[in-house]
Every structure is written in structure tokens, then in C-alpha cells.
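I'll show a typical protein example:
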Amino acid sequence: MTDRNLIGKEGEEEARDYLIQKGYIILHTNWRFHHYELDIVAVNGDELVVIEVKTRSGGYLIAPEEAVDRGKIKRIVSAADMYARYFRKNLPVRFDIITLIKSDAGYEIEHIEDAFYAPIR
């Protein structure tokens, strides 16, 4: 596994632990179905929360959340729709982004709630 993949996996574990500490109920991590993929799916209150996790180490060129572009948003929304149908979840869906910046001291975590909305077709 490359350093980049290891940092990404580590970041997702940190994000999951952070969410659990905040009272979220984690339903799935790295959920995949055909070509659909979601980093973390959780329940918080009465909402189904889909969380995209972006991890960077020092020296990154763009902010991690900027990597979630229009195309990525469309793929996440499609995957969330498939997830809700597959598991018959009839809850409002919220889309969050968690960014993690790795340093020698650990991770700096930022949780962006309602980071984006499903685009209107």
C-alpha cells in the first residue's frame, strides 16, 4: 500500500473515531456497491449523514475540501441515493466533509456540516 493510501486509510479511521465521540452512529465505512462508493455513512439524530473524508499531509497545494468538485458531488449523491434505496433508509440525507491535515503532532480535523446539497437535475 502506498503512503498516500495509508494516510487516507488512517484519516478515515480518525474521522470515524471523531464522529463516534460526537455521538454519531456509524452504519458503514467504505461502503461499495458496483461503481458506487461512500467513505462513511452514519446517523445523527433523525438524519442519514454521508461523510466524504479528505486527508492530506504537509505541503498540500489545495485545501482538502476543494478536491470535492462538482463531479465528485454528483457521484456521492448518486451513491447516497443507491445506499438509501438498498438499505431502505427513509431519512433526510445530509452531506458533510471531514478534512484531516496530518502533522507530527497528529491530525487537525475540520468537520464541515451541510458541505453541499444534492444538485437539481
